[in-house]
Design brief:
Helices cover 30% and strands 31% of the residues. By secondary structure, the protein is of the alpha+beta class. The strands form two sheets. Strands 3-8-10-9-5-6-4-7 form an eight-stranded antiparallel beta sheet. The protein has a two-stranded antiparallel ribbon with strand order 1-2. The protein is globular.
Length: 194
């Protein structure tokens, strides 16, 4: 079967382009657009330090879903107002440590809530200023247990750009899973960078 190649002539540049090379160009352009969109998923942001009240426990990651209501119940019972979204502070500093914590069910779990004035913590609850600074941010949309690909994208970006990390990764739970469908859950993931 004969291979058909259509020739296009650009009057302005005087260049002749075959449909075959034009298709290749469009493919490359589409691929570059895909890469740009992928890279744009990650932004560099400056986060202010935040006064928080939180609790730290050990257990499987799925325990975060129980710790958050416990924290809010403690705050409500003690007249403490929450002024933002709850935050999970991840103390496992590498993907390997996190994987080990999953396998062993002994993650170092800290859940905090932003507050506007200092309070005395009791019963394991602690009030302190959560560190701010320069952070790489990516947003995961969907169920919490499907955030692995978002973390993979973040860690790949860090490696590809030779970014130095410092401190604890944190997840900010933007909306309430009791009020939105699992596909609409938004989680902002921040990792402190130098």
């Amino acid at each position: 079967m004969a291979h058909l190649v259509r020739t296009l002539h650009n009057e302005k540049t005087g260049r002749t382009v075959t449909s075959e090379s034009r298709s290749h160009f469009l493919y490359k352009l589409t691929y570059l657009f895909y890469l740009k969109v992928k890279i744009m998923d990650i932004s560099i942001v400056e986060i202010d330090p935040q006064l928080v009240l939180g609790i730290r426990k050990e257990g499987p990651y799925k325990s975060i879903a129980q710790i958050i209501p416990e924290l809010f119940e403690y705050m409500q019972n003690n007249g403490i107002d929450c002024v933002g979204s709850p935050v999970y502070v991840c103390h496992e500093s590498t993907p390997e440590e996190a994987k080990k914590a999953v396998e062993e069910g002994n993650a170092d779990l800290e859940v905090v809530a932003p507050i506007d004035s200092k309070v005395e913590g009791q019963q394991g609850y602690k009030c302190y200023e959560l560190e701010g600074g320069k952070m790489a941010k990516i947003v995961h949309k969907g169920p919490y247990d499907q955030s692995g690909s978002t973390y993979t994208k973040l860690f790949a970006w860090i490696a590809e750009n030779d970014v130095k990390t410092r401190g604890c990764i944190r997840e900010v739970y933007v909306n309430d899973p009791r009020e939105v469908s699992p596909e609409e859950i938004l989680t902002e993931i921040y990792t402190p960078i130098e």
